[in-house]
């Protein structure tokens, strides 16, 4: 199997794992404070990452890697989880998932700025059409929309795209699971301290679904998913494999409707299908 094909397979596995993140976060923030949830999930994943580093006796990253690791930590360890957790207090997970349609464009832009990739002009046409469809959908919503929630989701997409591109670039020399592990470890003193500071006085009112949501986002969303995702981006190209994120709304919408019984409108599905078709075209012209 060629490296490019391996990249698409690893990328797809990462997307499938990430697709459960927003529904799981939506369940968790019903009983947990968003800031506590963000810091707790990162701290738990950081401890797991530290155990992996110790178990495999991985070498420490060089000084030149620290800036990139800090960007990864700010983008995907703290920024994206915190902004999405706050946004999900204003919007449904089904609505927020459609914003993931902007992630391929955000990732591709940072692939150019940080990764040195140069997709063809037609690639940007398809990516732009998909992004416009997502933004248009957000603007025409009424009861399920919230300007505050939408702006937070847009901010989350920007910092996540930067974290994805930066982490994929670093994966080429450091390794996929090593990148996310070191980023989690780097932010562990901060996330652990804030998790303790924002910890609720009692967990008596926290239901089982919220605990399951915390467990999922701590292990799968923050660690395991990145093992596959960063490896896929590094193997198949950041801009190209990044287009697989357009499958995430479809998978996520299905999960939101099935697990949370949230309404999934015909318009929501139509926008998602259109965006996926746009990304199929973008993938063809990514290189």
Automatic annotation (TrEMBL):
The chain crosses the membrane at residues 7-29, 35-54, 66-88, 94-113, 122-140, 146-165, 177-198, 210-230, 237-260, 266-286. InterPro entries: AA-Vitamin_Transporters, EamA_dom, EmrE-like. Residues 7-136, 148-280 form the EamA domain. It is a multi-pass membrane protein. It is found in: Membrane. Pfam families: EamA (PF00892). Keywords: Membrane, Transmembrane, Transmembrane helix. Belongs to the EamA transporter family. This is DMT family transporter. The lineage of its organism: Bacteria, Pseudomonadati, Pseudomonadota, Alphaproteobacteria, Hyphomicrobiales.
């Amino acid at each position: 199997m060629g490296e490019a094909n391996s990249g698409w397979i690893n990328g797809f596995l990462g997307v499938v794992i990430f697709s459960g993140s927003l529904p799981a976060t939506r369940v968790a923030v019903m009983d947990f404070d968003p800031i506590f949830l963000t810091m707790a999930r990162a701290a738990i994943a950081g401890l797991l990452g530290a155990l992996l580093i110790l178990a495999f006796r991985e070498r420490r990253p060089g000084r030149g890697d620290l800036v990139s690791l800090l960007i990864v930590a700010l983008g995907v360890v703290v920024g994206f989880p915190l902004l999405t957790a706050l946004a999900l207090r204003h919007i449904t997970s089904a609505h927020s998932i459609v914003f993931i349609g902007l992630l391929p464009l955000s990732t591709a832009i940072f692939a150019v700025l940080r990764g040195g990739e140069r997709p063809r002009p037609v690639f940007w046409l398809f990516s732009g059409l998909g992004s416009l469809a997502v933004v248009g959908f957000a603007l025409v919503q009424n009861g399920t929309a919230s300007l505050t929630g939408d702006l937070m989701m847009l901010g989350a997409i920007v910092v996540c795209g930067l974290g994805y591109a930066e982490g994929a670039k670093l994966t080429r020399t450091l390794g996929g699971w090593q990148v996310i592990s070191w980023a989690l470890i780097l932010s562990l003193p901060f996330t652990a301290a804030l998790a303790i500071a924002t910890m609720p006085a009692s967990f008596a009112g926290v239901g089982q679904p919220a605990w399951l949501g915390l467990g999922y986002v701590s292990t799968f969303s923050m660690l395991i998913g990145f093992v596959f995702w960063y490896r896929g981006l590094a193997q198949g190209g950041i801009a190209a494999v990044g287009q697989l994120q357009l499958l995430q709304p479809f998978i996520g919408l299905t999960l939101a409707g099935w697990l949370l019984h949230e309404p999934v409108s015909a318009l929501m599905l139509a926008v998602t299908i259109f965006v996926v078709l746009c990304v199929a075209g973008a993938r063809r012209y990514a290189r």
